[in-house]
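Feature request, filed as a ticket because there's no other form

It would be nice if the structure record came with a short human-readable summary line next to the tokens. Right now we just get the raw output. Example of a typical job, pasted below so the devs can see what we mean:
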Amino acid sequence: MFLRIRTDRISLFRFLLEGYDGLAVLSTIDVQEGLVRLIVPKGRHAELWTLLAAISGELAPANSDETGLTQAAQAAEFVHANE
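Raw output as currently delivered:
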């Protein structure tokens, strides 16, 4: 799964994910664009979306717009899902 988040929140997001043991592994793809990749184990996607919805205000890029996606996807500017 790929997400675009605020560039100044990448480290915070990584730290939060580490607190949810095994929820996801974050890799930074493009730090200037805030593009990150999450590898999520099967069966933990719902938990990840719950977390994203809870912290979406902290992650949302300043230039994000309302696209009709789910609350978590809107805030994190969902770019691409790859499963």
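Something like this underneath would help us a lot:
The radius of gyration is 12 Å.
The CA atoms of residues 26 and 38 lie 5 Å apart.
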